[in-house]
Amino acid sequence: MTNVFFQMISIAGAILICRAHLAYAVVIQASNEQNNIGREVPRMKFAKIWRSISIASVLVLSLISGSALADTGVKLPKLDLRDTRLDNGLRVILVPDHSAPVYAINVSYNVGSRNELPGHTGFAHLFEHMMFQGSANVGKGEHFILVLNNGGNMNGTTSEDRTIYFEELPINQLDLGLYLEADRMRSLNVTQANLDNQRSAVEEERRQSIDNQPYGRAELDLDSLSYDNFAYKHPTIGSMADLEAASVADVAAFFDIYYAPNNAVVTLVGDFNPDEVMVKVKKYFGSVPAQSAPPKVDLREEPHYGERRESISDPLARLPRMDIAYHVPAGNTTDNYVMQELSIALAQGQSSRFYQHLVKGKQLASNVSIFTDSRIGTSQLYISATPRAGVSLADLEKGVDDEISAVVKDGINPDELAKAKTQLLRRFIDRRRTVLGTAQLIGEYAVKFNEPELINTMLDKESAVTLEQVNRAARAYLVPDQRSVVTTVPAKAAADVTREAR
């Protein structure tokens, strides 16, 4: 009966898609006729509608069958990447997209907190703020004003592995985005006044987002407990002491090393001619001087022997919580893709086994989540769970351990893996549906893995994951003596943190 029901949905979905395509064809025909008699028709809107319909078609046809990605080999349109390197080492990737008269520029710098040294933490994130404080030809705060006043949006983000800055603007403002990014790459205003101002802003951000938030300490301490290598052991936001001790000379040296064209990737996606855009890119960025290559970072993490544990008494927490981390292989490797699909299968959505067993069935948890990240070096699978009222952390941990033991022993089933693949497909399509999302993905793939073509091959790699690989990886990586556990309990006053290894 269920199969018949889904077949009916499939047929209905296909009919709706065909009707939408037919309606589009009629509209285009009408627009052609109107154009023939001299009327101006906004064809861009039709192109955008067509693109949305096409993406919706992929989503509908994939979501009506949990095994769509695995069984039908769903393909997205391949993007044509023009990948060039300028004489100063700047990598430029251009991707035309004529669905709307807009473009996105994303500048990815090959620097994150992994590049920081002891005593100098937080510098990568500090520059996320410093980069908006003006340059030789752009005043303090003017970057925001120029972009917003011309109908655009902008921002920047920092992670362990990369720092990105981006703008999305109408295509008639192509020169503006290029000019702003090139000017601050060439001549950022690194002054004592700007450093003092932005250091205070970062310190306040840390207070608001971590120090004065429930479980903020746990989220920082989990990586510190799990990693031995300093590159990933310390938090991206840095320490208050290191930020206070930073001098203008320290910050300027960091900028000179890492914010150079030979350490960056500029990605543009939008409604343009690549040949014409390349001329402009060379005009604005070609004269920015290259710098010496940054020192390489050793990201090796030695195997752990024995579970690591920490208990935190958190005066801001109202409920207990447990956080667990398992080491998994680096991003863009087969086993990392495998562990990403395993984590989605276990805890994504209300039909997942962790939700069904721990939240709904045994009622041990009020919520539970699992996530696998994708770093340049050793990555992690994270589990976070909050016990239901009246349930002890010990009982919740036993429930989580029982579920993990069941996965290690018996594996997951084909339907769980198929659902995970479909969710990955939906997530990827959602990010690729805008020029900005596409530009950010390409820039990240280029900086982290030197593989911008992942934008075209990622789904193939995810689709190639087999049930046997997933179940083998569960046995290999969900090992108790290779994990780190941080438990948080509410308290009225801060308590000492105790650490024990066993």
Short recap of the structure:
The chain has 502 residues and is α+β, with helices and mostly antiparallel strands. It contains 19 helices and twelve strands.
Structural summary, described in words:
The chain is an alpha+beta fold and 502 residues long. Helices cover 50% and strands 17% of the residues. The chain is built from 19 helices and twelve strands. The chain has helices spanning 2-36, 43-63, 68-72, 123-130, 142-149, 174-187, 192-211, 216-226, 230-233, 240-245, 248-258, 274-285, 334-347, 353-361, 393-410, 414-432, 435-449, 454-463, 467-477; strands spanning 82-85, 91-96, 102-109, 153-158, 163-170, 264-270, 308-314, 321-328, 365-372, 379-387, 483-490, 498-501. It has a six-stranded mixed sheet, sandwiched between helices. A six-stranded mixed sheet has the order 9-10-8-11-7-12. A hairpin with a 6-residue loop joins β9 and β10. α13 packs across α16 (414-432). It starts with a helix and ends with a strand. 39% of the residues are buried. Mean pLDDT is 87; it is low at 1-72 and 493-502.
Helices and strands in order:
Layout: H1 2-36, H2 43-63, H3 68-72, E1 82-85, E2 91-96, E3 102-109, H4 123-130, H5 142-149, E4 153-158, E5 163-170, H6 174-187, H7 192-211, H8 216-226, H9 230-233, H10 240-245, H11 248-258, E6 264-270, H12 274-285, E7 308-314, E8 321-328, H13 334-347, H14 353-361, E9 365-372, E10 379-387, H15 393-410, H16 414-432, H17 435-449, H18 454-463, H19 467-477, E11 483-490, E12 498-501
Parallel strand pairs: 2-6, 7-11
Antiparallel strand pairs: 1-2, 3-5, 3-6, 4-5, 7-12, 8-10, 8-11, 9-10
Helix pairs in contact: 1-2, 2-16, 4-7, 6-12, 13-16, 13-19, 14-15, 15-19
